[in-house]
Amino acid sequence: MPNTDAVTNIGLPDLIRLQADARALKLPSARPVRSRQAGLQRSPQRGRGMAFAEVRLYQPGDDIRSIDWRVTARRQAPHTKLYEEERERPVLLLCDLGPSLFFASTGAFKQVRCAQLASILAWLALWSGDQVGGIVFNGETLSVQRPARRKKSVLRLLDTLAEQQHRSSRDLPQKEGAGPARLDTALTEARRVAHTGSRIFVISDFLEISPETGKLLGALARHNAVSALRVVDPLEKELPKAGRFAVAGPDGPVWFDAANPRFQRAWHEKVAHHEGQLQDCFRTSGVIAATVSTGEDPAVALKSLLGPGGRIG
What we know:
- The protein is α/β, with parallel strands linked by helices.
- Among the domains are: 51-86, no CATH class; 89-235 and 287-308, Rossmann fold, CATH 3.40.50.
- Helix content is 36%, strand content 21%.
- The chain is built from eleven helices and ten strands.
- α5 (110-127) links the parallel β3 (90-96) and β4.
- InterPro entries: DUF58 (IPR002881), vWFA_dom_sf (IPR036465).
- Residues 28-47 are annotated as: Disordered.
- Residues 54-275 form the DUF58 domain.
- This is DUF58 domain-containing protein.
- It comes from Marinobacter guineae.
């Protein structure tokens, strides 16, 4: 039986220990991979090759393999990706620890999974020689750490992840007039912090999207490689067929009867509506999205999402 505290919250020592999981993901691939793209050569300088710089209108002579088909379809005109030599690439981790993530019906709370995913990615980025930074936000606080290539920076980010998790409904924002630090606010801040060509991971349950979320994601993705890691709980997708259940909320438990057909219908309609909005958000912004369940081991989930040898590029 897992310890309750370990399921609902995760502390700094446990986040530090996740570097062992990150090391397992970083095992080198069996043989080196060589790029077939014309113009890429080995460089004596430190780096991994070419990094995305920007998208512009297609011009005669551009390599058709560099056409950005998403942007081309969206703007109804051919656009091509431009690259520049990549050295130290900033990796920015946006981690949502808001009130909706203080929940799980299986495994660990969504806020725990978000913190674990961010921690593993931070260790991977550090060992790849990248600069690591983060934006951690909950229902009340938003903390910004600019990318840096130091272990001390990763430890500071992990400390923020441990500190900003909610521990009970009493920890939810209670101050009058205090505006919540939500996803859109974090995305706006990321535009200010991120350098062109950054690798950005947005880790959230994406339950609080707005009409602006897709625009903000799209603006980030225009000059950076952006991935969305969506943490979900099975109960959010499919309710039990029968039984009375309680869900914790800031004002106490909320009971529902799963056998009530009207409740089931309203629930499925709400889920379908949100799923449609979210898929539109990801599609129009051109952001790559993946899902991680609260019942999954985050390292195992990341293994299927990352490139060969644990690369996050």
